[in-house]
Amino acid sequence: MIRDLLLFLALLLLQQQGPQLVSAQRPMPQWHYNSSRLNVGWFGSNVSGFENEAQMATISRYDMAIFGWQAFLDKTNYTDEAEQLVFQARRVKAQNPAMPVSIYLDMELAEPFQNAVSRAMFDPNFQDFWLRDRAGHIMTCNVFCRSMPGMDKEDPRCLAYYWNWFNKTAVDYYLNEYIQPLANRTGFDAVFFDGADEWMMQSRHTWKVASNVGSNRSDAEGLKVMIDMRVRTAELLAKYNKYPIISEHLGDTAPAQQQYISERMAHVGYFRYFEFFQPKQNYIEMLLNETQGKVIPDHGGVAHLPIMCRQFISRGLQMIDSIAAFMIVQGDYSYYSSSTGWFDSDWVWHKEYEMAVGQPLGLAVNHGGGIFTRAFSGCDVHVNCSGVGRGNCKGAITMK
Predict the structure, then answer these.
(1) CA–CA gap between residue 196 and residue 307 (Å, rounded)
(2) Is the pLDDT of residue 23 over 60?
(3) Beta carbons within 8 Å of 29's beta carbon, 6+ residues apart
(4) Which residues contact 132 (CB under 8 A, 6 or more apart)?
(5) What does pTM read for this prediction?
(6) Residue 273's beta-bridge partner residues?
């Protein structure tokens, strides 16, 4: 607690030294959201090319579609990924004009299969755009190689670099040469940014051990430059009527850091995406704070946060437990999703999605002891987390 307090004070001092935020309500997405039912998102990819008729029909059942980085990439074609995703999004929008559709970018890693990024990665004039180790070598990550069959783990077409957000010229390049041209494209509504908070969490591959960020950089400074970049990204997208969906894991940042992020981002529109949502008490309590009435002083009152909760289906999971936990925390522009992986074949439509749950009649009630309830027009939701340490919370949805 003392460490968190000291960190928070340091973050506030850094914030005061920078530009002051304008008091304003958070801008919300401009697309239609039906608050009278459970909204379900899809987040897949298809390496064999554009979605076929059956796949398009499957996507059409959902309320939002996000295309992952794996789409179109294989060992014979590993280039210009964003361009392909834009064309894919346009096909979905043409068939489902009201459905919000998002393309994928990474917010920590430089993806070499994005043309605008690869130009800088392989140009000797831009080598300080990337974090470098103590020997001066660029730090690399092979996650984009490991996730695709048939790719060599050190293939330069998939071997990523870590952006150096302490380098202001790198930030300008990222925004002006990469984000802005994509945001200016038509036919999609949002951009999903992966790995957003991992800038703070990586161990061997991080600014904390990099040789080209300056000595004795603090966590507060690292968080500030990350959020400076994130705020500028959200503001840039807003100019082109695009909405950022930012992936943040529950444990990536400490409570004081989360409060700093909330205050810095209170005036800009963004989704918070939880890739590993689980029906557990820590998720419920934290998300309630974000979606149902969190007040940010001096920032125009309630700063409601849109969310997407993605449940990875594991053995023993009861879908009703997961959906009930989500319904407890949901606010406007909240989406639930579940799958066994990241590809089209990993997504299955569940009968629970079709329950006539209706719209919330009020906020959730925390009864203490891990018990949460919430009334909807079509049902009552009850979640019991009192058995903490013995698995997921137990959910019940009683139809009226």
Answers:
(1) 15
(2) no
(3) 100, 189, 190, 243, 269, 271, 306, 333
(4) 138, 139, 210, 211, 212
(5) 0.90
(6) 247, 308
In the numeric block, the tokens 């997405």 are attached to 29
Give the whole-number percent of the chain exceeding pLDDT 70.
90
The average pLDDT across 198-213 equals 80
**How far is 69 from 104, CA to CA, in rounded Å?**
6
* DSSP states of 332-362: TTEEEEEESSSSGGG----GGGG-----BSS
Helix (H/G/I), strand (E/B), else coil: 374: strand
**Helix %, strand %, coil % for the chain, to 5?**
35, 20, 45
Neighbours of 318 (CB within 10 A): 14
pLDDT category of residue 8 using cuts at 50, 70 and 90? very low
pLDDT in tens, 133-156: 999 999 999 999 987 777 888 899
Mean pLDDT of 183-198: 94
> Alpha-carbon distance 378 to 184, whole Å?
41
Of residues 188, 165, 147, 187, the one with CA closest to residue 107? 165
Q: Please say whether the beta carbons of 249 and 197 come within 8 A.
A: yes
β-bridge pairing 41-44 and 101-106:
unpaired
Q: Evaluate whether 182 touches 191 at the Cβ level (below 8 Å).
A: yes
CA distance 130 to 137: 10
For residues 290 and 118, what is the distance between their CA atoms, to the nearest angstrom? 37
Six token digits for residue 162: 């870590």
Structurally, at CATH architecture level, domain 2-360 sits in Alpha-Beta Barrel (3.20)
User: Which ranges of the chain does DSSP label H, i.e. alpha helix?
Assistant: 2-17, 53-59, 81-95, 115-121, 143-146, 168-173, 180-183, 198-201, 219-239, 255-264, 281-291, 319-329
- Measured CA to CA, the distance from residue 263 to residue 280 in angstroms comes to 25
């009630």: which residue's tokens? 365
End-to-end CA distance of the chain: 44
One-letter identity of residue 390: R
Asked if the model's pLDDT at residue 296 lies above 60, the reply is no
Residue indicated by tokens 């009703």: 320
Q: Please give the structure tokens belonging to residue 121.
A: 């990665």
pLDDT tens-digit profile of 129-138? 999 999 999 9
